[in-house]
Amino acid sequence: MDKKIEKKKEKKTIKQSEKADTKDKKIEELTNDLKRVQADFSNYCKRTDKDKKEFAEYASALFICKVLPIIDELEIALNKINNADDKKGIQIILDKLKKTLSEEGVKEINCNDKKFDPFKHEAVLFEDSNEDGIILEEIQKGYEMKGKILRYSKVKVSRLSKESIQGSKENLEGDKK
User: What is the pTM of this model?
Assistant: First the structure.
């Protein structure tokens, strides 16, 4: 009889340990699921914050692109006006506008006496020269904001004249002989 009671107790403890094992496995599984959900939510929050920031920059860039022609017109007016007081007033407004744009990360693209870069400049005129691809004149200023081009600089670019090309061909042919 004692053996029967012992076997029953043994079976009972085995069943309890199996239940405990399945409970532990279930707890571990639920804990892992919870960790995954928390990580997904954290990634979601980061992604939405990044998207909001990009949208704000995009909206800001759109507005700034609308302001750039006003700056161009103020600069033209500054060069055309003869009255010193009017000139001073326009210069103050222009300086404030440029300062505000600078605070937003907007920079003018410097292009005088530089090599033509199609990623920053738009060639609108060409002039024959001894050198190729040098910016001779800036027709309209270009602007960039945080590394992105808002407006390409419109420039006049040098290109090799036919005489220069023929002269260099003749020099090459003379060197071959």
Answer: 0.66
Question: Alpha-carbon torsion 75, 115, 118, 104, what sign?
Answer: negative
CATH code of the domain in which 12 resides: 3.90.20
Burial code (b: 16+ CB inside 10 Å, e: under 16) for 125-153 equals eeeeeeeeebbbebeebbbbbeeeebbbb
Domain shared by 45 and 62, yes or no: yes
107: phi then psi, degrees, rounded to nearest 5: -130, 145
Report pLDDT digits (tens) over 135-162: 998 999 999 998 899 999 999 999 987 7
Range of the domain at 41: 1-104
Of 100, 106, 111, nearest to 145 (Cα)? 106
Buried/exposed 84-106: b ≥16 CB within 10 Å, e otherwise: eeeeeebeeebeeeeeebeeeeb
